Amino acid sequence: MTVVLGTATPGGGFPIYGDAVAATLNEIDPSLGVVTRNTKGSTENVPLLEAGQLDLALVQGEVAYEALRGIGRPPADLKVFAAMYSTAGMFVVRADSPIRAIEDLRTKPVVFGARGSGLVILARYVLDGLGLDQTRDFEAIYLDRAGDGPAMVLDGRATALWGGGIGWPGFTAVTSAGGRLLAPDADGIRRIQARHAFLKTLTVPAGSYPGQHEPIVSVGSWSFIMASPSLAEETAYRLARALHAGAAALAQRLPQAAETTAANTVAATPSHKQIHPGVLRHLRELGLT
């Protein structure tokens, strides 16, 4: 049996996470044969799942929210396989940058990520809550490869890089050279959530990145492993069972993946009806539903 897991462009967090998940599932249940496939990211993964060209795919929270609710498109007939991890949106700037707040980035060249990345959509919601427009108020830069962003900040072609989560490669690359992370302040978070209530308050613990000595509070959402409608119930059940059995091994491969737990899948998914029936069967066996 071969299961195809769609990720995103090289250099971002999704391919690293997807490789860790695939390696863990294959280790726990070698008969599954999970393979990863690079894509343009969340916004391409949704239609590829709908078309049955992927069995599973990584989808950032805002993209999943819009797809399942039918915002700007018909509602997607997709199911949640697992909650990945929480993604708190932030910017990173160089250590010598005069930028101290998000508003200081107006008119500046800012890398918002790969064109198909859900992080671009998260940025749109966050900035809208602050009364800013991604294309009007910034010199917005969109990439073909997520991994190209850090170098643009470090060599001065861009003032800031947008990203999110814990252990995100782009942030690690810039903070390793002394970069600073920027998030909305308390008033900004209040304004964002007043306009977009589905965004959650999330905390990035101190020490998540080089030189980050204090926790950072921002807003964001949970990303998901989504399943195609064509993924058989028995296959999803076996995959979910292997993912749960391999939770410790997955977290050892990638610390950020420690949030990929059965309990978090139940807590992060808006409705149990949105969880794949095969996964739901396993969650019932665990006593979680």
Give a written overview of the molecule.
The protein is an alpha/beta fold and about 290 residues long. The chain has eleven helices and ten strands. β5, α4 and β6 form a beta-alpha-beta unit. The protein is globular.
Morphology call: globular
Name the beta content range. Answer: 15-25%
Q: Largest sheet, if any?
A: 10 strands, mixed
Order of helices and strands: EHEHEHEEHEHEHEHEEHHHH
- Taking all Cα atoms into account, the compactness measure Rg is 18 Å
User: Any low-confidence stretches, pLDDT <50, length ≥5?
Assistant: none
The number of helical segments is 11
Structural class, from secondary structure content?
alpha/beta
Number of strands: 10
Helix content: 25-40%
Mean pLDDT: 95
Alpha carbon gap, first and last residue: 28 Å
Key features?
single chain; 289 residues; alpha/beta; ten-stranded mixed β-sheet; 10 strands; 36% helix
Task: Give a quick precis of the structure.
The chain is of the alpha/beta class and 289 residues long. Helices cover 36% and strands 22% of the residues. Strands 1, 2, 3, 4, 5, 6, 7, 8, 9 and 10 form a 10-stranded mixed β-sheet that branches.
